[in-house]
């Protein structure tokens, strides 16, 4: 029986580990993969290994974990960077876009020299340069009902860094259907939201927001702006949630919505109950197939305004 | 029947960490202990100075028992009893 000690010296038994760790293959308290660390790895991850809550076993869990990040943008950049630094062994990055100049105010995975390059490839280069122990799998495509379940299937945890509501709902629904934990964040102007969705353990995104908002109601970062560092804060909080799930430590934000305001540096925590009548995770789901909301969600701009190609309602 | 005291038992595992700086000497000690069973003894050789000051403290904070500390030339031998399941 595996035990670990908190910093106060008290022991936690493997049977008391939260349910989601039993669902993550790398979090299985019964199995103990015997990866031997090289001297460089011992040095690289020493600050993790020293932590009583992590140790060598925790670092091995990170090596074995597979995390999928939707979007290599404002949220996906800090999340990807730090999960790579942490040694998460396999990190998928889904992004169909190319690096643009306006990205560089906050999307720290990319550099000026990468302008015009596919973001998922730029992300891969940065992350693997930071940590050669990490394998980054780029998906240079848009997530849709046709590919979401297939892509998600290969991962233990998903981080939603998308910048639009259709993708947000698609990722939520796919994770609920595939029973994958999902770390969700959203940002706009000076504010951020964060929650962790573990299907079967707590609410999903639709328990909170059953339907996408009408097109044009919620502006995107492109329209309303975003303080660059706010994206950094929220992306890192997302990565923190993912790390906690992988390691099986702490209290993930299940059934809670964290609200952050950069201007007054305040954090608020709101309880979110699971809805028994939720259309996708409820007792009698009415949504059993993935929906591409794109066709219902087009922002139309006059020729004197910005042209938003496709749907850009949402934020990232 | 005589029961060998912990102090008299030979170490089950020995690791020479002389020349290994802090905190890597503790990290390597900790990694080795993780792979051992409760009650087993680990002997580590440590440099004088920071090493022998810091490592025993970390060992105790982690919950293991320092059985004895023995000078070895200008360095030290630290005998540790593993506590907690392997």
Describe this structure in words.
Chain A is built from eleven helices and ten strands. Chain A has 316 residues and is α/β, with parallel strands linked by helices. Chain A has one domain (46-296): Rossmann fold (3-Layer(aba) Sandwich), CATH 3.40.50.720. Chain A has an eight-stranded mixed sheet with strand order 5-4-3-6-7-8-9-10, sandwiched between helices. Chain A has a two-stranded antiparallel ribbon with strand order 1-2. In chain A, strand 4, helix 6 (119-130) and strand 5 form a beta-alpha-beta unit. The radius of gyration of chain A is 19 Å and the shape is globular. The model of chain A is unreliable at 1-17, 26-32 and 295-315 (pLDDT under 50). Chain B has a single domain (13-81), classed as Translation Initiation Factor IF3 (2-Layer Sandwich), CATH 3.30.110. Chain B has helices at 24-34, 50-61, and strands at 13-16, 41-46, 65-72, 75-81. A four-stranded mixed sheet of chain B has the order 1-2-4-3, covered by helices on one side. In chain B, strand 1 (13-16), helix 1 (24-34) and strand 2 form a beta-alpha-beta unit. At the A-B interface, helix 4 of A face helix 1 of B.
| Order of helix and strand elements from N to C terminus of chain B | EHEHEE
Strand order of the largest sheet of chain A: 5-4-3-6-7-8-9-10
Question: Most extensive interface: pair and counts?
Answer: A-B, 16 and 14 residues
Output the CATH topology of chain A. Answer: Rossmann fold
Beta-strand portion of chain B reads 25-35%
Mean pLDDT metric of chain A:
86
Shape of chain B: globular
SSE string of chain A, helices as H and strands as E: EEHHHHEHEHEHEHEEHHHEE
Architecture (CATH level 2) name of chain B: 2-Layer Sandwich
Largest sheet of chain A: 8 strands, mixed
Shape of chain A: globular
CATH architecture of chain A: 3-Layer(aba) Sandwich
Unreliable stretches covering 5 or more consecutive residues of chain A: 1-17, 26-32, 295-315
* Tally of helical segments of chain A: 11
User: What is the assigned CATH homologous superfamily of chain B?
Assistant: TusA-like domain
How many β-strand stretches of chain A? 10
